């Protein structure tokens, strides 16, 4: 089953499934990361649009996702927001010119994009040279026991949701040529991390 089909199917239950994590961690992190942004922002893999309420009204946000059904849910969240536009697009092949955005954001996306390094190269390309890339993601832990568990369950999470829980996202960002400025561990030791980088 393709990633589009998996997320089209998941779109109906996605927000409900994430209620506990949204409540404990995600909403707090979204606010911290997004509420101070300005300029032109690309939200890659915007999903059902859970980031939408946190963007300031004065930034211009472009949200893209590969799943039309996830985007349909995001569209319902737009309400009065005139500064956000949504497009169906593949993160590995973005239809934007080089140096188009002040910020490129991913929240819990690089785990499901089939080729994350290709997407990170596109992120680097469309981000302005003085812009910033912000990735809030879960990834393979440096702790051996957690990493073992992640490797063990990865085939299952891929089969059910198309989600990889053992990606080396910091290494992937470096492979794509991004210059890492900061990596913050957010939760579950170092499973959830915030990565800030420059193109
Ligand atoms: C786990 S959801 C996260 C959604 C949202 N960013 C959030 O914070 O709730 C991952 C999203 O990435 C999207 N996605 C997966 N592969 C993609 C690709 N190649 N291009 C664009 N979006 C993709 C999925 O359709 C899904 O909406």
Characterization of the model:
The protein contains 7 helices and 7 strands, in the order αααββαββαβααββ. With 199 residues, the chain is an alpha/beta fold. It has a single domain, classed as 3-Layer(aba) Sandwich (Rossmann fold). 40% of the residues are buried. The protein binds S-adenosylmethionine. S-adenosylmethionine (SAM) binds next to helix 1.
Q: How far is the first residue's CA from the last residue's CA?
A: 33 Å
Structural classification: alpha/beta
Strand order of the largest sheet: 3-2-1-4-5-7-6
Cofactors and ligands: S-adenosylmethionine
Provide the gyration radius in Å. Answer: 16 Å
Total number of helical segments? Answer: 7
Number of domains: 1
> Quick one: CATH class?
Alpha Beta
**CATH-assigned homologous superfamily:** Vaccinia Virus protein VP39
Q: What name is given to the CATH topology?
A: Rossmann fold
**Helix coverage percent:** 25-40%
Question: How many strands?
Answer: 7
Point out poorly predicted stretches: none
What percent strand? 25-35%
CATH architecture: 3-Layer(aba) Sandwich
